[in-house]
Amino acid sequence: MVTSECDGMALRELTPWYVRMAAKVVLSRIPVSYQAWRALRLFSHGEMAKSAYAYGVFRQHFDASTFPRKAGGFVALEIGPGDGLLSAVIAAAGATLALLSSDPKRVAALARIFGVTCP
Questions:
Q1: What's the rounded Cα separation, in Å, for the pair 100 and 107?
Q2: Which of 14, 37, 53, 77 could cross-link to 47 by cystine, CB 3.0-4.6 Å?
Q3: What is the pLDDT of residues 84-114, one digit of tens each?
Protein backbone atom coordinates (compact mmCIF):
# COMPACT_ATOMS: atom_id res chain seq x y z
CA MET A 1 0.00 0.00 0.00
CA VAL A 2 1.29 3.45 -0.92
CA THR A 3 1.24 6.00 1.87
CA SER A 4 -0.16 9.48 1.46
CA GLU A 5 3.42 10.80 1.35
CA CYS A 6 3.92 8.95 -1.94
CA ASP A 7 0.60 9.89 -3.56
CA GLY A 8 1.16 11.26 -7.04
CA MET A 9 4.77 10.08 -7.25
CA ALA A 10 5.78 8.03 -10.27
CA LEU A 11 7.12 4.51 -9.82
CA ARG A 12 10.45 5.81 -11.15
CA GLU A 13 10.70 8.29 -8.27
CA LEU A 14 9.90 5.59 -5.72
CA THR A 15 12.42 3.07 -7.03
CA PRO A 16 16.10 3.44 -6.07
CA TRP A 17 18.41 4.10 -9.04
CA TYR A 18 20.38 0.89 -8.46
CA VAL A 19 17.20 -1.21 -8.68
CA ARG A 20 16.24 0.52 -11.95
CA MET A 21 19.77 -0.03 -13.31
CA ALA A 22 19.76 -3.73 -12.40
CA ALA A 23 16.32 -4.17 -13.99
CA LYS A 24 17.51 -2.48 -17.19
CA VAL A 25 20.57 -4.73 -17.37
CA VAL A 26 18.36 -7.81 -17.07
CA LEU A 27 15.78 -6.48 -19.55
CA SER A 28 18.48 -5.52 -22.06
CA ARG A 29 19.30 -9.21 -22.48
CA ILE A 30 15.82 -9.92 -23.88
CA PRO A 31 16.02 -9.94 -27.70
CA VAL A 32 13.63 -7.06 -28.39
CA SER A 33 14.22 -4.26 -30.89
CA TYR A 34 15.21 -0.79 -29.77
CA GLN A 35 11.98 0.57 -31.25
CA ALA A 36 9.91 -1.76 -29.04
CA TRP A 37 11.80 -0.74 -25.89
CA ARG A 38 11.44 2.91 -26.84
CA ALA A 39 7.68 2.50 -27.41
CA LEU A 40 7.43 1.02 -23.91
CA ARG A 41 9.50 3.98 -22.65
CA LEU A 42 12.05 1.66 -21.05
CA PHE A 43 15.06 2.45 -23.21
CA SER A 44 15.67 5.52 -25.32
CA HIS A 45 18.68 7.50 -26.40
CA GLY A 46 19.36 10.23 -23.91
CA GLU A 47 19.72 13.96 -24.03
CA MET A 48 23.45 13.69 -24.73
CA ALA A 49 22.57 13.50 -28.43
CA LYS A 50 21.62 17.19 -28.21
CA SER A 51 24.66 19.43 -28.54
CA ALA A 52 23.49 22.19 -26.17
CA TYR A 53 22.68 19.69 -23.43
CA ALA A 54 25.95 17.77 -23.95
CA TYR A 55 27.94 21.00 -23.78
CA GLY A 56 26.13 22.04 -20.58
CA VAL A 57 26.87 18.71 -18.91
CA PHE A 58 30.52 18.83 -19.97
CA ARG A 59 30.91 22.41 -18.68
CA GLN A 60 29.24 21.51 -15.39
CA HIS A 61 31.71 18.68 -14.76
CA PHE A 62 34.70 20.59 -16.14
CA ASP A 63 33.98 23.71 -14.07
CA ALA A 64 33.48 21.64 -10.90
CA SER A 65 36.81 19.86 -11.25
CA THR A 66 40.37 20.88 -10.53
CA PHE A 67 43.45 19.30 -12.05
CA PRO A 68 46.96 20.44 -13.00
CA ARG A 69 46.58 20.89 -16.77
CA LYS A 70 43.06 22.29 -16.80
CA ALA A 71 44.17 25.37 -18.77
CA GLY A 72 45.18 23.15 -21.68
CA GLY A 73 46.99 19.99 -22.61
CA PHE A 74 44.77 17.71 -20.55
CA VAL A 75 43.58 14.26 -21.56
CA ALA A 76 39.85 13.58 -21.41
CA LEU A 77 38.67 10.05 -20.66
CA GLU A 78 35.07 8.96 -20.95
CA ILE A 79 34.22 5.51 -19.68
CA GLY A 80 31.07 4.07 -21.18
CA PRO A 81 30.15 6.73 -23.71
CA GLY A 82 27.09 4.76 -24.78
CA ASP A 83 25.30 6.19 -27.80
CA GLY A 84 26.40 9.77 -27.22
CA LEU A 85 29.83 10.78 -28.44
CA LEU A 86 29.33 14.54 -28.27
CA SER A 87 31.08 14.91 -24.92
CA ALA A 88 34.26 13.51 -26.48
CA VAL A 89 33.99 15.95 -29.37
CA ILE A 90 33.44 18.81 -26.92
CA ALA A 91 36.33 17.66 -24.70
CA ALA A 92 38.62 17.37 -27.70
CA ALA A 93 38.17 21.09 -28.36
CA GLY A 94 40.32 21.83 -25.29
CA ALA A 95 42.10 18.54 -24.69
CA THR A 96 45.28 17.23 -26.20
CA LEU A 97 43.57 13.86 -26.44
CA ALA A 98 40.07 12.48 -25.84
CA LEU A 99 39.81 8.76 -25.08
CA LEU A 100 36.59 6.75 -24.99
CA SER A 101 36.17 3.23 -23.70
CA SER A 102 33.14 1.12 -22.95
CA ASP A 103 35.32 -1.52 -21.29
CA PRO A 104 36.69 -0.33 -17.92
CA LYS A 105 39.25 -3.16 -17.91
CA ARG A 106 40.92 -1.67 -20.97
CA VAL A 107 41.01 1.95 -19.82
CA ALA A 108 44.45 1.73 -18.17
CA ALA A 109 45.92 -0.11 -21.16
CA LEU A 110 44.44 2.45 -23.54
CA ALA A 111 45.84 5.28 -21.45
CA ARG A 112 49.32 3.68 -21.34
CA ILE A 113 49.39 3.50 -25.14
CA PHE A 114 49.09 7.29 -25.17
CA GLY A 115 51.55 7.79 -22.32
CA VAL A 116 48.95 8.70 -19.71
CA THR A 117 49.41 7.54 -16.12
CA CYS A 118 46.21 6.40 -14.45
CA PRO A 119 45.83 6.90 -10.70
A1: 8
A2: 53
A3: 678 778 888 888 877 777 776 677 777 777 7
